[in-house]
Amino acid sequence: MTLQSIMDEVRNLPGTGEVIAVIDPATEEQITEFTDGGAKAVEEAVSRARESFEAGVWHGLPGSERAKILWRAADLIDEYATEIAQLDSINTGMPFVQAHSIVGTSAEFFRYYGGWCTKVNGIAHDVHMTGGITGAHSNMHGYTLKEPVGVVGLIFPWNGPIFNACAKLAPALAAGCSVIVKPAEETPLSALLLVKLLAQAGVPDGVVNLVNGYGHTAGAALSEHPDVDKIAFTGSTEVGKKIVQVASGNLKKVMLELGGKSPVLIYDDADLNTAILSAAMGIFVHSGQGCISGSRIFVQRGVYDQVVEGIAAIANSLKLGGPKDEGVHIGPLISQKQLTRVMGFVEEGKRDGVEVVAGGSRIDRPGYFVHPTVLTDVRPDMRLYQQEIFGPVVPIMPFDDDDQVVAMANDTTYGLAATAWTSDVGRAHRLAKRLDAGTVTLNCQMVFDHAMPFGGYKQSGWGYEHGREGIEGYMKTKSVYTQI
Question: Which domains does the chain have, with CATH numbers?
Answer without folding.
Answer: 3-258+460-483 (3.40.605.10), 263-449 (3.40.309.10)
